[in-house]
């Protein structure tokens, strides 16, 4: 598959060197580590025998090249693929349901460049205040689809992620339709299953509804993530964390418009249609898991905590 490198400009030079140091990546041993993970996968009866090298390398980077942490993340990732068909099946960006969201409901493109300390920035904003329950689930599905594309295309690795949430279009009806179970499943995916190093979350164009939204979501967040949420009263405050020039034009930057980036990422997801289809069968098989199979009710129980899943 041909990479559109301008969509995810890869770090180079001194920034790339700093990222490798932060991720504990040794270019002399990383392929030995990759081989060890591939061998481990082949020996797990409940997990896929094979997967592409690039996402496995992304998992190693997201685990700071700790083999044990990488194994736990991969196991949870393939487990969630089987446990959450609402997120991990029918991932066709040309379908009417997903096209409607991509074109007229929400925008969430990663930005082309990285910050001076090697972090990737993603901006999410609503363009229509009303989403029904299924559209909320499909929006979260699309976010994970972008995550999967990045597993394949962050070929140099990044030192973490920054999310900017523009709450200008956040209708009260959205809160009424948020399902605690759906939100918890999504948060387990993001915090436990994906190799994401979430460094900062910035909320701009805030309102009282945002406070209620955060109150709803915070119980599903790890303590360290809660401490990384920043609410800004003015856009210029964001520039202390993200260089202004790397932002879209709507936010005072120079990397094109949100609409242009959204169109490009929509096409990227369409380009991956066959890959997503091929991934449908690449997931955990609980009937073959050694010992006790994963109990989905325990995993997603709203009264449960992340303790049994915790990965530092």
From TrEMBL:
GO cellular component: membrane
Signal peptide per UniProt: none
One Pfam match: CRAL_TRIO
Molecular-function GO term, any one: phosphatidylinositol bisphosphate binding
Domain CRAL-TRIO: residue ranges: 94-259
Domain of life: Eukaryota
InterPro entries, per database record: CRAL-TRIO_dom, CRAL-TRIO_dom_sf, CRAL/TRIO_N_dom_sf
Matches recorded under PANTHER family: ALPHA-TOCOPHEROL TRANSFER PROTEIN-LIKE (PTHR10174:SF230), ALPHA-TOCOPHEROL TRANSFER PROTEIN-RELATED (PTHR10174)
Name assigned to this protein: Alpha-tocopherol transfer protein-like
Species: Papilio machaon (Old World swallowtail butterfly)
